[in-house]
Design brief:
The complex is a heterodimer. Chain A has a single domain, classed as Glutaredoxin. Helices cover 36% and strands 21% of the residues of chain A. Chain A has six helices and seven strands; from the N terminus they run H-E-E-H-E-H-E-H-E-H-E-E-H. In chain A, the strands form two sheets. Chain A has a five-stranded mixed β-sheet with strand order 5-4-3-6-7. In chain A, strands 1-2 form a two-stranded antiparallel sheet. Chain B is mainly β. Chain B has a 24-stranded antiparallel beta barrel. A two-stranded antiparallel sheet of chain B has the order 7-8. In chain B, strands 9-10 form a two-stranded antiparallel ribbon. The radius of gyration of chain B is 25 Å and the shape is globular. Classes of the chains: A alpha/beta, B mainly beta. At the A-B interface, helix 1, helix 4, helix 5 and strand 7 of A face helix 1, strand 2, strand 3, strand 18 and strand 19 of B.
Chain lengths: 161, 488
């Protein structure tokens, strides 16, 4: 038992991390490279979602609304869909239904998802800096999702990093 | 003691100094998953609890268009140091290279053909499943064509980090695979193409094959078929034979087909799906089930079913209804399953989700099931969540308790985005005195930075558990468990 607690204690020493890079097939054809996204010199929000995950759709709807507003957030959004074959035919209709305009990377085997979040629970999002550092992770539905993202990016810009 | 030092080194050795950036293009990451469980079967009063310490780690590197990772695991029997253990099992290793329109994967990869009727090698951590192709796959993708070819053998986990792992499906044998697929983008959002799979099962230590499968299939998809209609069609034919020494016996030809037609026009979503699997006997697949994750899911080998589902949003609320009708050829009975659900907000910011249905397999298992989830915000970033799920088996209108009856209740308090505590209670009315009918437990999760921890203490009743459409029989559990995930 002592070993386990020692391991847990040591593992609480957190280290600032780089986001695992990935390339993936896009809904509608083509490929997306996370690394190339950083070339725009903007923060990137990677949102993992599934067509059956209601809180994920809520968050994406809120993001869509925010990007349609006059005060458009200053970060890019990449969504990674983790629907398995049972529900994968719902992805395209769901995107159209809600009018999502963000790129949708298809991850039916959840390989990308596992790299970021081994527990693979939804909703899950990761905010990355323009250099690929993980700034913040969001697990579960959070009402102040967008303001938390903007606060994190403001803090980053304020720090001059 | 030495084994713990060794474990410590392999657990955390790779982590130190991994968070480095070599130039602008190289990157090394590592992640750990640790699970400690000390438990016994609650129905066995004489049994002593046994402790298991399970661990898996993945170390990955990315350099330009080259990506590689390895995954290793170990499993210790803490209470029984003389028992079998694996100080180090190399589970998966992978090297990926992308160059222009080409993608090459060497080592382990999750391969799939179509919607998983012909082949699906997938991961499901709940049951310790992670089946991969250990070999090579090459993919070419351009605007008009997508092709893939792969070759290798199936690699399943040897030391799964899970409480109720599935037994290794390739224990005592090798299953070799060779497959190919091609999809042509014919314009107007049409994509179509064939696929082929050859599989051979070879008992370990022999040069003969005891089973062989050949699958030929094709898929067709069209988005925006007509005014927001999406269409997907797939069909497969399976030829297989079983061989004993010197004698090959051809088995009946299997067929597996699936189709879906979706129509979306806000606020409506309508979907019609159909499946027809006839004598389709292949282990490494995960076909669409069309079913909810309730117990006694119908088989995926010899069954026909169609389901119509309709969803209507009403402001922030929504209503869903679905009806499935089919025929289970194994049980020789029809299937009917109607489900009605709604999500809606109540007073005081209450968020509710209610879902219920009735499923009938005449002469077999008829089930009523219902679930309710409700969430109430309390203080800033805090909430209380209540969930109840109940299923009751009905046979010949007899409402007395039956085998698959289960009643579960969960109460969760979310203290912050990083901490929550959960109380659970399960009632299985048909269990005997020895097995017990009441099961209570306490759980919690805590997340800080890249560390995520879950703890559980108490009992669960076991029975049929389903995850992502896969159902397994799991043992009752009594004890405590501690699980951590850490990403470096």
């Amino acid at each position: 038992m002592r070993i386990i607690f020692a391991l847990l204690l040591i593992s609480t020493v957190a280290v600032a991390g780089k986001a695992p890079l990935f390339n993936g097939d896009l809904l509608g054809g083509g490929r997306l490279s996370l690394k190339k996204t950083f070339e725009k010199q903007k923060g990137v929000l990677v949102c993992f979602w599934a067509s059956w995950c209601t809180p994920c759709l809520e968050e994406l709807k809120n993001l869509t609304d925010a990007f349609k507003s006059s005060q458009k957030p200053d970060f890019d959004v990449i969504t990674v869909n983790v629907d398995t074959p049972d529900t994968s035919s719902d992805v395209n209709p769901t995107v159209r239904f809600y009018g999502f305009s963000f790129p949708v990377v298809l991850d039916p085997k959840q390989d990308i998802f596992a790299k970021y979040h081994q527990e693979r629970t939804l909703p899950f999002s990761v905010l990355l800096s323009q250099t690929g550092d993980i700034l913040q992770t969001f697990t579960g539905h959070q009402d102040d999702f967008i303001s938390q993202i903007q606060n994190a990016l403001s803090a980053l810009n304020g720090s001059g990093l | 003691m030495i084994r713990y030092v060794f474990l410590f080194l392999i657990l955390y050795g790779p982590a130190w100094g991994t968070e480095t950036e070599m130039g602008n293009f190289a990157q090394v990451t590592a992640s750990n998953h640790l699970l400690f469980s000390n438990s016994k079967d609650p129905s066995d009063k004489e049994a002593q609890p046994s402790g298991h310490l399970m661990h898996e780690a993945t170390v990955g590197a990315h350099y330009g268009t080259l990506h590689t990772d390895i995954q290793f695991a170990n499993r210790f029997f803490v209470s029984n140091p003389e028992g079998p253990d694996n100080p180090f099992v190399l589970e998966k290793k992978r090297l990926e290279l992308e160059w222009k329109n080409w993608e090459l994967k060497l080592g382990d990869s999750h391969e799939q053909l179509g919607k998983g009727i012909a082949l699906s090698l997938y991961r499901d951590p709940a049951f310790g499943i992670d089946n991969t192709l250990e070999g090579a796959s090459i993919k070419f993708q351009s605007s008009g064509l997508r092709t893939k070819f792969f070759l290798g053998r199936i690699n399943a986990l040897h030391a799964p980090v899970a409480i109720n792992p599935q037994s290794n499906p390739v224990e005592g044998r090798n299953v070799w695979l060779a497959g190919a697929s091609a999809h042509v983008n014919a314009g107007a959002q049409i994509e179509a193409g064939p696929h082929y799979l050859a599989a051979l099962s070879q008992p370990s230590g022999t040069t003969r094959y005891d089973k062989s499968w050949h699958t030929v299939g094709a898929t067709f998809s069209k988005s925006e078929l007509w005014q927001n209609f999406d269409l997907y069609l797939e069909s497969n034919v399976l030829f297989w034979q079983h061989s004993t020494i010197g004698v090959a016996e051809m088995q009946p030809v299997g067929t597996g087909s699936y189709g879906s037609l979706s129509w979306v026009s806000a606020p409506w979503k309508v979907k019609l799906e159909s499946k027809n699997y006839r004598q389709y006997t292949f282990e490494f697949q995960k076909p669409p089930t069309l079913e909810e994750e309730i117990v006694l899911s119908s088989n995926t080998i010899d069954v026909f079913a169609s389901r119509l589902s309709i969803e209507r949003t009403l402001g922030r609320a929504s209503v869903q209804a679905s009806y499935l009708q089919g025929y289970d050829r194994f049980l020789d009975t029809s299937i009917h399953h109607g489900v009605l659900g709604s999500k809606f907000a109540g007073p005081l910011g209450l968020q509710n989700e209610v879902r219920g249905g009735y499923r009938t397999l005449p002469g077999h298992n008829n089930l009523i099931h219902a679930a309710l989830k409700t969430k109430l915000k309390t203080f800033k970033a805090q909430s209380i969540e209540f969930g109840v799920r109940s299923q009751h088996q009905v046979e010949n209108l007899d409402l007395s308790p039956a085998t698959e009856d289960r009643h579960r209740l969960e109460l969760t308090y979310v203290f912050s985005k990083s901490l929550n505590l959960q109380l659970g209670y399960e009632y299985i009315p048909t269990n005997g005195e020895a097995a017990g009918r009441h099961f209570a437990n306490l759980g919690g999760s805590y997340q800080i930075a890249k560390l995520s921890t879950r703890a559980f203490v108490g009992q669960t009743g076991g029975g049929t558990e389903c995850s992502a459409g896969v159902c397994r029989r799991v043992q009752p559990y009594s004890g405590f468990m501690l699980e951590t995930y850490y990403t470096f």
